[in-house]
Amino acid sequence: xxxxxxxxxxxxxREGLTMLIDGSDGFTxxxxxxxxxxAADEVAAWQPDVILMDIDMPGTNGIEGLKHIRAVNSDxxxxxxxxxxxxxxxxxxxxxxxxxxILKKTPxxxxxxxxxxxxxxxxxMTASIATQVLKMFSQMNNVQSEDYNLSDRExxxxxxLVDGYSYKMIASEMFxxxxxxxxxxxxxxxxxxxxxxxxxxxKAFKDKLL
Amino acid sequence: xxxxxxxxxxxxxREGLTMLIDGSDGFTxxxxxxxxxxAADEVAAWQPDVILMDIDMPGTNGIEGLKHIRAVNSDxxxxxxxxxxxxxxxxxxxxxxxxxxILKKTPxxxxxxxxxxxxxxxxxMTASIATQVLKMFSQMNNVQSEDYNLSDRExxxxxxLVDGYSYKMIASEMFxxxxxxxxxxxxxxxxxxxxxxxxxxxKAFKDKLL
DNA sequence: ACTTTCACCACATAAATGTGTAGGCTAAAA
DNA sequence: TTTTAGCCTACACATTTATGTGGTGAAAGT
Lengths: 210, 210
Prior knowledge:
The structure is a homodimer.
Chain A: E1 2-7, H1 11-22, E2 27-33, H2 39-46, E3 50-54, H3 62-72, E4 77-82, H4 87-95, E5 100-103, H5 108-119, H6 127-140, H7 152-162, H8 167-174, H9 178-192, H10 197-206
Parallel strand pairs in A: 1-2, 1-3, 3-4, 4-5
Chain B binds a DNA duplex through residues 149, 151-154, 166-168, 176-180, 182-187, 189, 195-197.
């Protein structure tokens, strides 16, 4: 029996979903709320398996509710429910640990399927949502780190710089003279087209060199 | 008619998939290769709608093939095919613009469904894969940037430090004395629990303070 | 045999940096 | 009101770093 908690402000939809889910074998709706002003407490009290969470709600909205719940419970499966495959909301939901994101127009049979999938550890998503997620992912990871042709020694020095080592410490760490450290660093600056330690460190992160 | 190109090193599976897909209404297999050493050329020649790409192949593997194809064609849908929901590969595939990622044990009927879904712009994923993608997403965006309570002035100084400004430049940029700049920086170091510029800059990136 | 590249070392000077101390100001708490 | 706390500002001192100039030897490419 999959225990479901429901957050949905529209009375009709709330009733409809409750009846649909509660009336299906293997599902039970513990409770249905019209906002998630006290979501964290309610979740703690009911111990549901899956939460259906509408995104657009008066009061504490779905994303906030998600955060509040996740702050105290990283176990319960949370399915976000929305009318639009709105880019920003998908992003926010996904990055705050939602387990799935489905459109309200999902047919009832499919919805039950999704709930089951979520309960068993899956990540049900409407196709349009999945596409968006992948797109976001590839966008955010396409910095295509240029290769600055840093030699091994130079990479090592840069790493130590990033870690806050002083020239002197780097020298002793690498068993070379401080002057050698300096000449490596000079070379690094040339290769990265920067002229200060901070910029080099910043660039190391921006371009994911380390 | 959905035109499919197939990359799979195992002869049996290659034959099997070809027959399955080619024998289904609405699908046609343009060609099937045992590696993607010349994937980019082949894709350009065949103009497929969907590519089924095995990940583990001798010679150029699936991930490399994906990159090569994406380098010249961002349009064709590419479905990665693999035995394992291996974390690293999923990540690589997704970030290089794969449209879907499915396990080889997917039943034939489901497979055809996935191909259709991909062709129509969806992002089909096996449930276990979807779960992983979401997990990666929330991990990578949940550094839960601790709030170090940097004051506005301190944030401004830190930003300028990251951009490679010297103390002197920061002073003139902010219309304060260089000594004040130093005081701010000292305070920043305290708050970030570091004691050098490099570490502060590194922390700024790690914790996405800026 | 030649030049190029790379990792390494040295010295000197000016500039930048880390750190301790401290006053004035504002807002909130006692 | 006084106290407390945080922020912004400022100065002094010792150390570290940046910068420029010079050099060595070994390996790789021509």
